[in-house]
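During the second year of the project, the team shifted from modelling isolated chains to modelling whole assemblies. The rationale, set out in the original proposal, was that interfaces cannot be judged from single-chain predictions alone. As a representative example for this report, we include one of the complexes processed in the last quarter. Its constituent sequences, exactly as entered into the pipeline, are reproduced here:
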Amino acid sequence: MPDATGLELIAQELRDTDPGSVIGTLMFRGQATIEVDPAHVRTALKHLGGKGYTFLASLHGCDYYPDEPRLGVHYVMLDMKEVDRVTVKARVRVAEPRIPSVVDMFPGADYPEREAYDMFGVEFEGHPDLRRILMPEDYEGFPQRRDFPLGGEPVLFTYNEEQSYGRYQ
Amino acid sequence: MSAEPAGYGPTHELLTLNIGPHHPATHGVLRLIATLEGEVVRDIKPIIGYVHTGIEKTAEDKSYWKVIPVVERMDYLSYYFNAMAFCGAVETLLELEVPPRAQYLRVIHLELNRIMSHLVWLGTSALDLGAMSMFWYCFREREQILDLFEMSSGQRMHTRYIQVGGVIEDIPRGFANRLEKFLNVMPTRADQYADLLEKNEILLARLRGTCPLDEQTLLSLGVTGPLLRAAGNPWDLRKAAPYSSYDHFDFKIPVGTVGDNYDRFRVRHAELYESTKIIRQALDGLPEGPYITTDRKVALPPRHELATSMEALIHHFKLVTEGFRVPAGEVYYPIESPRGELGCFVRSDGSAKPARVHMRDPSFVNLQATAPMVRDSYIADLIATLAMIDPVLGGVDR
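Output from the structure prediction step:
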């Protein structure tokens, strides 16, 4: 992990090359995180790629309910030479959950972006095939959001079958 | 040169073939939609989600120590690894020191689990390639490992052995002897597998030179583990970023050269020997001391203390009812599972239940490499390649 100074240097360079991109930095338990504006996530990842952080180790979503912007997307970038990780974090509002896709830069982001869309409803603009991946295609709602009840939908019996969205007509 | 993609146009006839979801060769509930031109695969689309059980969502409603059994059921062949990734993440959040004996006991069980997972892979893969007897030989050794798991934890699968702060129990009397016996026999068994398979003309014809993928493409696809090592990149988190005392042990990272199916087979087979070596060193150098942290705010007090100590009783009651609280924050804890980088992301909001648990499962990411690997090769090679990718669908779908 870069130390706190190293992280600040990377963040400052990013601020210089792309003004308005960095929202904040965080060192927590020895792990470095840069929070960026969602519109600038591609330039941030490109900049980190130039620093050696070329491998997208993980891409996952997160819900910060009830704080806004609620939905977070995390990109764990790995430098395999220095064995070093930096997490890039972008948060989008739940009313307008759009963020540029990075599939053209990292083909391996395809499934993880679809998973984040499936579970949180984050729309990755420019993704070639943004469909649900784990839940059924006709599923409604985004189950990993914090305000989605854990029980999900009620078990269907004859008395409540009319409440089902996919009920037999 | 026409502008149309390969396999299209008036002179070609494409056939769309559905394989799975219930097909023995897909190693789980995986559905493949293959576009064929004659016997040649032009494109393939994996369809997943059939065994999605929402474990990550379930985990958000359980206190930290109750999450361990559910995350173990994600990748059902490497349950110790799932528990290790989750506990490692929680320990990072808690800034908890794990006693050396617990770290060594973890390593012993993790590496036994790696051998067990590779044995299932070897047996079922050989079955796909027509070598039926391999399956029985591999499962014979796997049975010995499961007996060892049963001895140390009471369970054969999903053992809940690794806990936050250490392991649930010390190894019982007789475990070391039995493990010693297994360690003596395992390398000779691995030799026997090699004798059976490596001089087998059919197996060589189906593996050698089929469906290679170069290192750069694998890296851009996020592929890690034996698949990446088969292409010549010696990336292994046990060496690169040692956790749980892996830097104490002397072992090698097997790598391949061209990254074809044969290399993938050889790398995993060589890992059987290396894991055996690690377990032997861990068993010989097993330090004395506690097997779980003595921090009573996190780990249960020993049973005998409950009868005499009020403090212990209070701690026990608090831990069993509410669980322990974890400082707010986010961490990502990666380890090397049998299939690659298994990273656990945990976000805590300061309560006794995690606000988000995410597993970066290697099978899920590695599965994306199927299409680039098998494009323009024969459908028989598709089956061999899928076996060599070794996806576990419980981990893919979670």
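The interface with chain A takes residues 48-49, 52, 54, 56-58, 60-61, 92-93, 95, 219-223, 235, 240-241, 329-332, 334, 341, 343, 345, 347, 355-356, 358, 360, 364-365, 367-368, 397-398 of chain B (CB under 8 Å). The first helix of chain B runs from residue 55 to 59.
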